[in-house]
Design goal:
Blueprint lengths: L4 H6 L7 E4 L3 E5 L7 E7 L14 H18 L5 E3 L15 E5 L9
Antiparallel strand pairs: 1-2, 2-3, 3-5, 4-5
The chain binds guanosine-5'-monophosphate and zinc ion.
Zinc ion binds next to helix 1.
């Protein structure tokens, strides 16, 4: 989508601190980290949020989760939190599906 911030980041049109990339997904450090480790994993395909996941795109979403597990193994992260805010009330501010991966500090439950 031409006016989407994360489509532009995935395409390399806006710079980011890359963590991982393959044909289907892109991972990069969050610009405003909320934990010592905080990166985002996004599909290269524009999917607005978890609410738009269906049988036509669920394979790429599953791939994003497999990539999260791979990065976590490589970074030696044995405890981490995966978050995908969905909708404005839940805190979503960028409407291109992304998984926050947070690690490196104690976390509380439930989230605020
Ligand atoms: P949301 O609020 O939608 O759950 O998450 C969006 C995330 O994207 C936020 O944590 C925010 O800090 C991050 N973000 C927003 N703009 C940029 C940017 O230009 N570059 C990077 N690396 N992260 C961004
Ligand atoms: Zn997009």
């Amino acid at each position: 989508m031409s006016d989407c911030l994360f489509c532009k980041i995935a395409a390399g049109e806006i710079p980011s601190s890359k963590v991982y990339e393959d044909a289907l997904c892109y991972a990069f450090d969050d610009i405003d980290p909320k934990a010592p480790t905080h990166f985002l994993v996004i599909p290269k395909q524009h999917i607005p949020s978890v609410a738009a996941v269906d049988e036509s795109n669920s394979a790429v979403v599953a791939h994003c989760l497999a990539v999260i597990a791979k990065i976590a193994r490589e970074k030696g992260m044995d405890s981490f939190r995966v978050v995908s805010n969905t909708g404005e009330q839940a805190g979503q501010s960028v409407f291109h599906l992304h998984f926050h991966v947070l690690s490196g500090r104690d976390m509380t439950w439930p989230p605020g």
